[in-house]
């Protein structure tokens, strides 16, 4: 797995990946002056190849959205092992979960924040291909996932 972004938020994502024993092959960043972060090599963003498994490790959701549209990577979500995520909660595309997520909510972002409460299970959902929920995570009602490849819990 690779990370895009080699500054403060990347350190949090690295900690979560290491806690989950997920190997990190390196990071990408637009700032060519950065060559290493926490003993991981940092490469120019021009080196990104199609379908790389990646997390955008930038805290600003608007910038993350722009980058996700720019690169054709396999984006994943991470859930910190100390976070408790309800089996009735839903986690959005490209999310980094660092704290507990309660029942009947949808959480999304980096870090994931609750943006919809009281999910009504009678609503329809549009879930894209290759959506995988591991660790009892529900990806269903009220959520439209088209980029999510895998949730690692």
Describe this structure as you would to a colleague.
- By secondary structure, this protein is α/β, with parallel strands linked by helices.
- Helix content is 14%, strand content 30%.
- The protein has 2 helices and 13 strands.
- Strands 1, 2, 3, 4, 5, 6, 8 and 13 form an 8-stranded mixed sheet that branches. A 3-stranded mixed sheet has the order 7-9-10, with no helix packed on it. A two-stranded parallel ribbon has the order 11-12.
- Strand 3 (36-37) and strand 4 (40-44) form a beta hairpin.
- It is globular.
- Mean pLDDT is 77; it is low at 121-153.
Index terms:
2 helices; disordered C terminus; alpha/beta; 8-stranded mixed beta sheet; 3-stranded mixed beta sheet; 153 residues
Helix content: 10-25%
Strand content: 25-35%
- Termini separation: 15 Å
Q: Got a strand count?
A: 13
Give the helices and strands as they follow along the chain: EHEEEEHEEEEEEEE
Which assembly state applies to the chains in this document? single chain
Q: How many DSSP H or I helices?
A: 2
**Major beta-sheet overview:** 8 strands, mixed
Shape: globular
Helix/strand-derived category reads alpha/beta
Low-pLDDT stretches are 121-153
How confident is the prediction overall: mean pLDDT?
77
- Gyration radius (Cα, Å) is 15 Å
